[in-house]
Amino acid sequence: MGIRRSQLPERLAIAELNALNARHGHACRPSSRIPPNPLGSFKAVELEPGLRLFIADVELPAGAPVENRYNQGLFCSLCLEGRMHCRLNGDPEPIVFQAGDLWFQEIAPGDVWVSEQQEHGRFRSLCLEIDRTWMTQLPADAPHGAPLPATAALRKYASVAFYMDAQTPPPRHLRLRALGMMMMAEALDAAARHPPILSANVVRSRDLPLLAAARSLIEREYEQAWTMEQIATRVGLPVRRLNSGFRQAFGSTVFGHLQAVRMARAYDLLRQGRPVTSVALEVGYASLGSFSRAYRAAYGRAPSTDAG
């Protein structure tokens, strides 16, 4: 195993990727084309200026290409699960990146990597993005018996790995792998003490039917005085995953959707000539004042305006 010019694909919404580029444009990906609506999660942590850790846990359909263009840098990537076919600058022969592989990768300005998974499934990975200038700032040796700080130790390992040449003794690939594993361990340790500069969580595929069931439930029984806990129990999802997943899947909060359903039904009943008070009760409001405020927020007018 040597220093390879390759890249680990990420899954980000384009808007999120652009926001990240705007904050760290000189070092992060200038452009990316990704499959729509990825499933899973992606986190980016800046450990120091010029040193970032990307943690991906995603699920993708087979054959959905991911295109990335990069600035100059060094990457250390570890595949934890899955199998990707990666091509650099249109090379006909793909490089296979699969579970257990650890790559060191030097990226030149303008390199284009296209990666795709051959079978639908989960892909989990860690990727360190390292600016060349960051590696040149070698740490001073620690006092005897004292460990280096995580990022200082990481810099030393990265520099040794990058400048390791063909004259290194025969088990070179083992030395590189050991250095890469130590780099990942130090990076994860440092990441635990840094907030992410980007965290994109998307819906787990196994949650989609349960989220759809939650939507159907409140559309069918909109007059009930639901709590989040009651809905979560009915469909078999933890409250937190119901709350975040519903917004990501349908573009609205649970109670935002419930109120929209109630207002649409209220409008229909009012146009049928039903009294405002009875309509309020029928769509789940115990208070006429609360119903009137919700109706005005939805339609910009009092419910009595639409009474037939």
Model description:
The structure is a single chain. This protein has helices at residues 14-23, 132-136, 150-163, 172-191, 208-220, 228-235, 239-250, 254-271, 276-282, 288-299, and strands at residues 31-33, 39-48, 51-60, 66-69, 73-81, 83-88, 95-98, 102-107, 112-117, 121-130, 198-201. The protein is of the alpha+beta class. The protein has a 6-stranded antiparallel β-sheet with strand order 8-5-10-3-2-11. A 5-stranded antiparallel β-sheet has the order 1-4-9-6-7. A hairpin with a 2-residue loop joins β2 (39-48) and β3. The longest helix has 20 residues, at 172-191. The protein is elongated and about 90 Å long. The relative contact order is 0.12.
Which features would summarize this protein structure in a list?
single chain; 308 residues; alpha+beta; Jelly Rolls; Arc Repressor Mutant, subunit A; 6-stranded antiparallel sheet; 5-stranded antiparallel sheet; elongated
CATH topology value of the largest domain? Jelly Rolls
Class of secondary structure makeup: alpha+beta
Count of DSSP E strands?
Answer: 11
Task: Give me the strand/helix succession.
Answer: HEEEEEEEEEEHHHEHHHHHH
